[in-house]
Design a protein that fits this description.
Blueprint lengths: L9 H11 L8 E2 L2 H7 L2 E6 L9 H11 L2 H6 L1 E4 L3 H13 L3 E6 L4 H9 L3 E5 L3 H15 L2 E2 L6 H18 L5 E5 L4 H13 L4 E7 L5 H7 L21 H10 L2 E5 L1 H15 L9 H8 L1 H4 L3 E6 L12
Keywords: Lyase, Pyridoxal phosphate
Organism: Persicitalea jodogahamensis
GO molecular function: ATP binding; D-serine ammonia-lyase activity; L-serine ammonia-lyase activity; magnesium ion binding; pyridoxal phosphate binding; serine racemase activity; threonine racemase activity
Amino acid sequence: MKNDPLYPTQDIIEAAHDRIKPYIHRTPILTSQTLDEISGAEIYFKCENFQKIGAFKARGGVNAVLSLASGEQERGIATHSSGNHAQAIAYAASVVGAKAYIVMPDNSPQVKVDAVRGYGAEVTFCKNTPEERQRIVDEVVARTGAVFVHPFNDYRVIAGQATATRELIEDSGVVFDTIMAPVGGGGLLSGTSLAAHYYSPLTKVIAGEPEGAADAVLSFKTGKIEKAPYVETIADGLLTYLGDKTLDIILRHVSDILTVSDNEIIAAMRLIWERMKIIVEPSCAVPLAALLKNKERFAGQKVGMILTGGNVDLGKLPF
């Protein structure tokens, strides 16, 4: 797949960053002495919970939509997503004046549904399985003629997500031992690993994944796309399995994938709320949970961590 002209080379990631810059925030990097003491590592948090739409996915969505030819934009843009990519495409479509058609699982957090509609997108609901999401979005595309932008298995999306790690490395001035991100479909993780490969080649990339959606760790071991043995986790943003493009990059550039339980995710999420005074959603806390579960592995390291988003339903906090 490396011979695909859209494959995210360093030049393509640079171009993506220039393209999206006017429409996204260059999010801050925060540290916490308390979390450093608790973890035994020196952690630099890239706060994408402060990003437009409240999540890193604004980067990939905006890059994908702005990369389309004007004729394609005019047809409208369609996607499926439980929330953050849905908001990203709705926001990106509003930037270029295009219509957005979003397929969302019927159990998506209401806060995310409201936000998608707030950007003027048309929402269609489906049962929350990858197969149903794709089936319904295919119907929407057939009906509307809209261009489909995959939530993660799209090089334009991956290049956009890679810009978060590019900024983390550039703005911190730190040579990281490890950079951590959560993994669902792998758009962020593959982008993170490519950015580390280009901008900080000695840095390892390690993912956190919920035990209740542990497909990526299986795919990582077998080298082919696997489904999770069971799906039940509070981390609603990480329920999907990898795509062929994301798996290909992950196999080449990611060092390991560590799994964590929902209790460990909730504990890490609570720590971030209490100690850093910032709002994060459960999926966002997965890498910190993985670090805390494996402290000895990261002891004394400089660790960069992508805090992916803060779109949490405040009426349904797990603590």
